[in-house]
């Protein structure tokens, strides 16, 4: 084997190793952990964590701060009476699901989550949505907001104060939106609504002419 052949063989071998490492890294990023003990064995490699329907001990929730690289967290249906303070240390979080819990308000510390892009607040019977939306003003990258199944009959008071939003999910609410409820949301591209019959033809036309696409559940 001549010198050139050896060099090519080395480059091929080295390239194969790098490709293998990249595949391992990609698989770790795609993996969704559902057991906090397993995830804590190597917290820096955890990017997705699903602890829904688990109702963990308070001490377990306090350990969430260990996941410094976490990008997606699901705590839905955990019957949380308040949002664990450890969440507000997750500066890389992009998707946060807090649906189906028992807390009454979102604290101002949520402003720490500057990279948050999608927030789920579906089926929150005790949540004061008006007070909570005030806190969301401090999230510059929030693009998607889920408020499904919250018995909303009209637009939340501060919904129109969140110009960063691109999509709002309002399915399973008996809501009748008007253009004035969303006319300050200059980046809004889509509204997800349950029933077209909740809108007057004029309201529908005004919203669609404003450039907002309406997606109806039925």
Describe the secondary structure blueprint for this structure.
Blueprint: H1 3-30, E1 32-33, H2 36-40, E2 48-50, H3 58-62, E3 72-74, E4 95-97, E5 118-120, H4 129-135, E6 144-146, E7 167-169, E8 190-193, H5 201-209, E9 213-216
Parallel strand pairs: 1-2, 2-3, 3-4, 4-5, 5-6, 6-7, 7-8, 8-9
Helix and strand pattern = HEHEHEEEHEEEHE
- Helix percent band: 10-25%
Given the structure, what is the number of helices? Answer: 5
Proportion in β-strands: 5-15%
Largest sheet: 9 strands, parallel
Structural class: alpha/beta
The CATH homologous superfamily of the largest domain is named: Ribonuclease Inhibitor
What is the CATH architecture descriptor of the largest domain? Alpha-Beta Horseshoe
Radius of gyration computed on alpha carbons: 22 Å
Average predicted local confidence, pLDDT: 90
Give the strand order of the largest sheet, numbering strands 1, 2, ... along the chain.
Answer: 1-2-3-4-5-6-7-8-9
CATH class of the largest domain: Alpha Beta
CATH topology name of the largest domain: Leucine-rich repeat, LRR (right-handed beta-alpha superhelix)
Number of strands: 9
Q: Quote the distance from N terminus to C terminus.
A: 70 Å
